[in-house]
Amino acid sequence: MDRHLRIAPVHHGLVGATPVMRDLVQTIGTVGRTDVTVLVTGESGTGKALVARALHAESARRYRPFATLDCSAIPAALVEQELFGYSRGAFAGAVQERSGQLEAAQGGTLFVDEIGDLGLTMQAALLRTLECGSVLRVGGSRATPVDVRVIAATTRPLEELVARGRFLQALLSRLQVTTLALPALRERRDDIPLLADHFLQRFSERHGVPVRPLSDGARALLLTHDWVGNVRELRHVIEGALLRCDGDTIMVADLPTRLMPSEAPSFVPDDAWAALTFVEARERALREFDRAFLAAALARHDGNIARTARALGLHRQSLQKLLARRALR
Q1: Angle at which helices 120-132 and 76-84 cross, to 10°
Q2: Which sequence spans correspond to the domains of the chain?
Q3: Topology classification of domain 19-185
């Protein structure tokens, strides 16, 4: 077992060495230098806010403000005030003027997170600001010019919202000048060990505890998990395991029990299987079953080849050949 943590390539907080991540980093560098509006899509926990900050850091606006508006965290009645600000006397309690996030980002970047949760009225108001380059505060009578680059993010399918009359096509078209689609963690599993080692180093420094590497079994278990919460979920798992571990190495027992497979994994063919012949489909099914079953077995025995082979009724050499054939370490 390698007890040394691998140094992961990190770009503005984004960690990964898979082709999809290398392409993403290259695109961020190219698009970041422009001033175009960007729409970042992806599941929760994939790093959309990190991408927004990376785009800002790559731009000529990097030394100007970076402001954030999280549409999912602000009550709908307060979004207008947060986005545009308000004038004195605009409503009860408005005893003084207050600028909104658009003005706070003057000369810089405004990151609008979960823009799919923005109401239609506010969508129209934001589109108007993007088109005319000025802000009118709530209760105000004079528009203020603003120079702001907008980067929006969403976990929701905006095209479907447009079809249902819940999102403005004009605003979507304006946001889609450039779209960056972030992959789910399960779609770039080769990055999981790099991310895990990155978080181990980071949290050992933060909490002042020794760096503890993952055992082979713990690493194998991380590779089999679906990671519905993506990188955010992995980060929390690694931090908790590091703090729970009382030995020199993080073992399977230090990981949350919810990661442990309760039974032999199964698969459900989807539409992508329809184009396969029977022989091709059977081979794919066997390959997926072998990988999931063997990885789970290794995790149960903490990566020990000899114990895993005995438990499965295989010779050690046979198991090693099978692991190699299925590209399992």
Answers
A1: 10
A2: 19-185, 188-259, 261-329
A3: Rossmann fold (3.40.50)
Q: Quickly state the pLDDT bin for 98 (edges 50, 70, 90).
A: confident
- Rounded distance, CA 9 to CA 20, Å? 13
pLDDT number for residue 265: 47
pLDDT of amino acid 2: 44
Distances (CA, A) of 293 to 17, 72, 80, 158, 290: 26, 39, 52, 37, 5
Phi, psi values for residue 98, rounded to 5°: -145, 130
Are 139 and 96 a contacting pair, CB within 8 Å? no
Instruction: Report the helix count and the strand count for the chain, using DSSP H and E.
Output: 13, 11
> How high is the pLDDT of residue 92?
58
188-259 CATH, one of 1.10.10.10, 1.10.8.60, 3.30.70.270, 3.40.190.10: 1.10.8.60
pLDDT at residue 285, as a whole number: 74
How does strand 144-145 pair with strand 134-135? antiparallel
* Residue 42 Cα distances to 12, 64, 93, 152, angstroms: 18, 27, 39, 12
Give the Cβ contact number of residue 63 at 10 Å: 8
Number of neighbouring beta carbons within 10 Å of residue 237: 21
What architecture is domain 261-329?
Orthogonal Bundle (1.10)
Tokens at 125, concatenated: 């108001």
- Residue 282: the pLDDT is 72
- Chain centroid to Cα 1, Å, comes to 29
Question: HEC string of 60-103?
Answer: CCCCCCEEEEECCCCCHHHHHHHHHEECCCCCCCCCCCEECHHH
First vs last Cα of the chain: how many Å apart?
11
pLDDT at 241: 92
What's the DSSP call for residue 108?
S
* 1 vs 152, more confident: 152
Q: Who contacts 39 (Cβ-Cβ below 8 Å, separation ≥6)?
A: 151, 152, 153, 154, 158, 172, 175, 176, 178, 179, 180
Distance from C-alpha of 88 to C-alpha of 110, rounded to nearest angstrom: 24
